[in-house]
Each structure stands twice: as C-alpha cells, then as structure tokens.
Amino acid sequence: MKKILLYFVSVAACVLMLGYPAVAADAPLKKGDVLPQINLPVPKDPGHKSYLGLSGEGEFKIPQTKAKVIIIEIFSMYCPYCQREAPEINKLYRKIENDPDLKGKIKLIGLGAGNSSFEVDVFRKTYEIPFPLFADEDFSIHNRFGDVRTPYFIGVKIDDGGNHRVFYSKAGGFDGAEQFLALTLRLSGLK
C-alpha cells in the first residue's frame, strides 16, 4: 500500500511541476539595451531625495532622476566582494561630487539583491555609503537585470528625451575609482 501511495504522490508531483514551469530570469543587460522599467521608492532621506533630484513621495523610475548618467551597483550585504569594493565605490562618489563638471551629471544608486531594508541599512552604515541604496528583498529587480552575481555594475545614459540606454554592464569590481570614472566618461560620451 505504501508503494502505491508513494507512486501516486510522485506522479502527482511530476504533473504539477510540468503544469507550472519555472520562471526564467531575464538575460543580463548588454550595451545598447534599454534599462528595464522598474519602480523604486522615493528616498525618505532628504539628502538622498535631493541627490537624485526627486520630490514628493511614492515611487520613481530611474530615468526620472536628474542626471545624465546613472551607475547602478547590484550588491548584497553578504557578498565579501561587495564589502571589499565599498571603499572604492565611496571614492568614486566623492570624485564625482567634488568635480564641478561632473556633479549633478553622474549619480550612483545601489540595489541590495535579496536584502531587506534592514540589511541594506546595515550595509549603508557599516561601509558609510553616501548615495541611495534600495532593498530588493524578493529579487524582483535583480531578476529583471538577469539574475546577475554581485557586485554587478550597470551604466545607463539618460538623454533629454528620457531615453535610457545601457552603456556598461559587467560583473565584478573595478580596478579603481579613477579608472572606472574615466571608462564611464568615455563609454557614456559625457567627456
């Protein structure tokens, strides 16, 4: 009797799995792709809200930020490479913000893949991240970006018409803030 019951349970499980195929992640973004439309919460922190050029409450889309270029870092607070990269990202932020020709044109944001708001806050405080970080606890944004490993960097250029095309998409850290900034300027066409 147990063998027959086990057989029927196994058959039922197979039928259910075939009836509900797995949802595949999108492919990683590549140069020339349009950034998938995602909604993020308008930051509650007035400094972060001002940095992104946003007002009000609710949600925003990345092309609504007041910038020509957005650099998105997909990170996880548990990723040792993201932890190691944090000081260089902060250095990149300071280089941009301290350059009058770049300040306001290039903005950084971070998306915590699988991280809750609490975990993102711990990462922000631990590594003194000065730019806005957003939680992606259910991996929904991460999935839209191709279920990439962390850290992952995406550079997006926003033109006056609101078009937003990817000019950089790569896993792993970078060789330093200066080199990454030079690469960003070259690939985005800002300089």
CATH class: Alpha Beta
Distance between the termini: 75 Å
Q: Return the domain count.
A: 1
Looking across the biggest beta sheet, what order are the strands in?
Answer: 5-4-3-6-7
Low-confidence stretches: 2-25
Please give the CATH architecture. 3-Layer(aba) Sandwich
Might you state the CATH topology name?
Glutaredoxin
Q: In which range does the helix fraction lie?
A: 25-40%
Number of helices: 6
- The coarse silhouette is globular
Structural class: alpha/beta
Calculate the mean pLDDT score and round it.
86
Which series of helices and strands comes N to C? HEHEEHEHEHEEH
Instruction: Classify the beta-strand content into a percent band.
Output: 15-25%
Specify the biggest β-sheet: 5 strands, mixed
Commentary on this structure:
With 191 residues, the chain is α/β, with parallel strands linked by helices. It has one domain: Glutaredoxin (3-Layer(aba) Sandwich), CATH 3.40.30. The chain has 6 helices and 7 strands, in the order αβαββαβαβαββα. The chain has helices spanning 2-19, 46-52, 80-97, 117-126, 140-144, 177-188; strands at residues 40-41, 59-60, 69-75, 106-113, 133-136, 152-158, 164-171. Helix 3 crosses helix 6 (177-188). The longest helix is centred in the first third of the chain and has 18 residues, at 2-19. It is globular.
